[in-house]
UniProtKB/TrEMBL annotation:
It comes from the Bacteria. Belongs to the transposase mutator family. Keywords: DNA recombination, DNA-binding, Transposable element, Transposition. GO terms for biological process: DNA transposition. This is Mutator family transposase. Required for the transposition of the insertion element. The keyword Transmembrane helix does not apply. Residues 52-75 are annotated as: Disordered.
C-alpha cells in the first residue's frame, strides 16, 4: 500500500517564509498526515493477517505533542480490538521527529533523494516527493550556518589543512570547486573540524581568508600546522598566526618527487629516500639528502631543487620526539576525513549548487565526530612534550 502525501500546503508555508522545523514550523502540517498514513498501512497489514473476519471500525482521536506542534491524531480501530499500532502506541501522547530524522540520517549516509524516497516508502508505506525530501534536508542549512560561525577554542596544538575538489553547477555550467577542510586537535587530544569553505580554486590567497576566519572566531594560537606543499601556504599561515610552526607533508613531497623519476627507477629511489625522512636528526637527514643528490642529482635535478627550496618546512618535525613527529609529518589525518567525504559523494557526479554539497558534507562531519570520542594515541605524553617545547603557550589552556 502506498499513500501519497499532500505537500501543497507545506510548499506554500515554505514560500511564505515559515520555518521548516520548530513548534510552529511547516513540517507540523505534514506530521499528522505522515503518522496517519503509517497507521493506515499498519492496520491494513494487521487485517490481512487476521483470519477471524476482522475489519476496520472507525477511529479514536487523541491529542499528540511533537517537536513541530500539537495536533489531533485519528488512530484506526478494528472490530475485534486486536490492533496494536507500533508507530504510535495506545497510551503514547508525544512523538519525536522520527520520519524527519530517518530522512536526515539516510541523507547523511550519502543516499540520493530517490533512494531516500524508496527507503521511506518501503519502511512507512508513505510516498514522498523529491521536493519534500529536499525541503526536509534544507533545514540543515541554518544548522550549518550556525556551526560555521561558532566560537572556537583559543589554542589548538595541531591543525591540518587540505582541500578536495568537486563539480558544482554555477551560472548554468558545472565548474570545479575546491572544498577547504580545517581539522584541529584540541588540548584534550580530540579531533574537531573547525570549518568548511568553498572556492573556485585552491590557493594560498584563499587559505589566508580561511585562517583569518579562524582568528575572528576566537583562535589566538596554533602550535603546529601540517599542510601540503602548496606554494605560499606557510607564508599565509604565518601572516595570521606568526608563531605557528608549519610542517609540510612528507608524504605529499614523496609523491611529487616520484612523479619526476623514471618508472624503472621509482622503487629504488623511494627506498633510498627513506634514509632522509626516517632519519633520527635533522643533521642526519641533511647528510642523507646530500648523498642521494650526489647519486641522482644530475638525472633528476628538479626533485632535489624542490627538497632544498622547501627544506625549512619539510624538516620541522625532526626537532620533536616520536609521538609528536607521528602526528605532524603527514596530513593523512585529514585525508582520512576526505576519504569519508568521497564515500558519501561517490554516487554524485556533480552538485546543483553550493548548498547541496555543503549540507551533505556537514552531515558527514557530524557523523564522523560522533566517533571521535577518544584522544589521539599517547596524547598525555604528547601534550606534556608540547608544553615543554612551547613553554607558556599552553598554560592557560591547561590551567597551569
Amino acid at each position: 500500500m502506498k499513500i501519497e502525501i499532500d505537500v501543497e500546503q507545506f510548499a506554500r508555508d515554505i514560500k511564505a517564509g515559515k520555518s521548516i522545523g520548530g513548534s510552529d514550523g511547516a513540517l507540523g502540517s505534514l506530521i499528522k498526515q505522515l503518522t496517519e498514513a503509517a497507521l493506515a498501512a499498519e492496520i491494513d497489514s494487521h487485517l490481512s493477517q487476521d483470519l477471524n473476519r476482522n475489519r476496520k471500525n472507525g477511529y479514536n482521536s487523541k491529542t499528540m505533542k511533537s517537536d513541530h506542534g500539537t495536533f489531533e491524531l485519528d488512530v484506526p480501530r478494528d472490530r475485534n480490538g486486536s490492533f496494536e499500532p507500533e508507530i504510535v502506541k495506545k497510551n503514547q501522547t508525544s512523538m519525536t521527529g522520527e520520519i524527519e530524522e530517518k530522512i536526515l540520517s539516510l541523507f547523511a549516509l550519502g543516499n540520493s533523494y530517490s533512494q531516500i524516497a524508496k527507503h521511506i516508502e518501503d519502511f512507512y508505506c508513505v510516498g514522498f516527493s523529491k521536493a519534500t525530501i529536499s525541503a526536509v534536508t534544507d533545514k540543515i542549512i541554518p544548522m550549518l550556518q550556525e556551526w560555521k560561525t561558532r566560537p572556537l577554542e583559543t589554542v589548538y596544538p595541531f591543525i591540518f589543512l587540505d582541500a578536495i575538489h568537486y563539480k558544482v553547477k554555477e551560472d548554468g555550467r558545472y565548474i570545479s570547486k575546491a572544498f577547504y577542510t580545517v581539522l584541529g586537535i584540541r588540548v584534550d587530544g580530540k579531533k574537531e573540524i573547525l570549518g568548511l569553505y568553498l572556492n573556485e580554486s585552491e590557493g594560498a590567497k584563499f587559505w589566508l581568508q580561511v585562517l583569518t576566519d579562524l582568528s575572528n572566531r576566537g583562535v589566538k594560537d596554533i602550535l603546529i600546522a601540517s599542510v601540503d606543499g602548496l606554494k605560499g601556504f606557510p607564508e599565509a599561515i604565518n601572516s595570521v598566526f606568526q608563531d605557528t610552526q608549519v610542517q609540510l607533508c612528507i608524504v605529499h613531497q614523496i609523491r611529487n618527487s616520484l612523479k619526476y623519476v623514471g618508472s624503472a627507477y621509482q622503487k629504488q629511489f623511494a627506498k633510498e629516500l627513506k634514509a632522509v625522512y626516517q632519519a633520527f636528526t635533522k643533521e642526519e637527514a641533511e647528510f642523507e639528502l646530500d648523498k642521494l643528490e650526489e647519486k641522482w642529482g644530475k638525472k633528476y635535478p628538479i626533485v632535489f631543487q624542490s627538497w632544498r627550496n622547501k627544506w625549512d618546512n619539510l624538516s620541522v618535525y625532526f626537532q620533536y620526539p616520536e609521538d609528536i613527529r607521528r602526528v605532524i609529518y603527514t596530513t593523512n589525518i585529514i585525508e582520512s576525513v576526505h576519504r569519508q567525504f568521497r564515500t558519501l559523494t561517490k554516487t554524485k557526479g556533480a552538485f546543483p549548487n553550493d548548498d547541496s554539497l555543503l549540507k551533505l558534507l556537514y552531515m558527514g562531519i557530524q557523523n564522523a565526530q560522533k566517533k571521535w570520542t577518544m584522544p589521539i594515541r599517547n596524547w598525555s605524553l604528547t601534550i606534556s612534550q608540547l608544553a615543554i617545547h612551547f613553554e607558556g603557550r599552553l598554560d592557560d589552556a591547561l590551567n597551569l
